[in-house]
Write a structure and sequence with these properties.
The complex is a heterodimer of chains A (114) and B (139). Chain A is mainly alpha-helical. Chain A has 6 helices and 1 strand, in the order αβααααα. Chain B is an all-alpha fold and 139 residues long. The longest helix of chain B is centred in the middle third of the chain and has 32 residues. Chain B is 76% helix and 1% strand. Classes of the chains: A mainly alpha (114), B mainly alpha (139). Chains A and B meet through helix 1, strand 1, helix 2, helix 3 and helix 4 of A and strand 1, helix 1, helix 2, helix 3 and helix 4 of B. Strand 1 of chain A pairs antiparallel with strand 1 of chain B.
Chain lengths: 114, 139
């Protein structure tokens, strides 16, 4: 429980730090890269390595590449839909999380599983 | 296009909005950790790149743009969507950098200590993200 609380606090702090950086950096398109910063990895990797070892974290890194590819497709989809369809930001970005899930599941099935 | 730092833009975000960022970030991190504990590193690693805080972040970008436009007497719905769309395009560049971060962890960690690997991974994220953003601007 204490470990989860620690992860919550570290995760919240790292995400907040990158949110501030994203707000500060201009132009906005460059500030947008901070929305895809490795916040969860930075918040968890040291604790995970301490508990499970380097091999475990290295495997997570390989899967993270697949998750990042899914994030790339997701972010492009969000950008395209909002520009072309003029739909609202929150429902669009939330609904399109299915794109991330679909891409991540596909990459898991064809690359990571086995 | 030149990189600039605008600290005055931090005033647009209220303490409550920063608190929401903190809570959302903490919850997503805990969720990713629980998934990794339950399903192992292969599935858990996918969630190190889960865009869980992206929808509220991009919604905030659109809201701030609407507020700036409203202060000047405009409705600003279209420009808010355009700004959020640009932010999402920037995030796609950051996602490419996220892949580079994962690659460095994957290839670097088995034989090297964590601190230098994290430094190289962070630098790889920044360089690849910036390169992708620059390329996108040029195209």
């Amino acid at each position: 429980m204490i470990e989860l609380l620690l992860r919550f606090l570290i995760g919240g702090a790292v995400v907040s730090l990158f949110a501030v950086l994203g707000d500060t950096v201009k132009p906005e398109s460059l500030g947008g890269i901070f929305a895809a910063a490795p916040t969860i990895a930075l918040a968890t990797v040291a604790l995970t390595l301490h508990e499970r070892g380097t091999g475990y974290v290295a495997l997570e890194g390989r899967s993270m590449m697949a998750g990042a590819a899914a994030f790339f497709v997701y972010a492009c989809a969000v950008s395209w839909v909002m520009m072309r369809r003029r739909t609202r930001a929150l429902p669009t970005a939330t609904a399109l999380l299915m794109v991330w899930a679909g891409m991540a599941a596909t990459l898991w099935a064809v690359w990571l599983r086995g | 296009m030149r990189l600039r730092l605008r600290f005055d833009s931090l005033r647009a975000t209220t303490p409550l909005e920063y608190a929401r960022h903190f809570v959302a970030g903490g919850l997503v991190t805990v969720a990713a950790s629980l998934i990794a504990q339950r399903y192992g590193p292969v599935i858990g690693g996918l969630f190190l790149a889960f865009p869980g805080i992206f929808p509220p972040s991009i919604s905030l970008v659109a809201k701030h743009k609407r507020e700036r436009e409203a202060a000047q007497g405009f409705v600003g719905v279209r420009s808010a969507l355009a700004e959020a769309s640009v932010e999402a395009a920037g995030a796609s560049a950051g996602a490419a950098g996220l892949g580079a971060f994962g690659l460095v962890l994957w290839k670097g960690l088995p034989g090297h200590p964590l601190a230098p690997v994290l430094l190289v991974a962070g630098a790889a994220w920044a360089m690849v993200s910036y390169a992708m953003w620059w390329l996108r601007e040029k195209l």
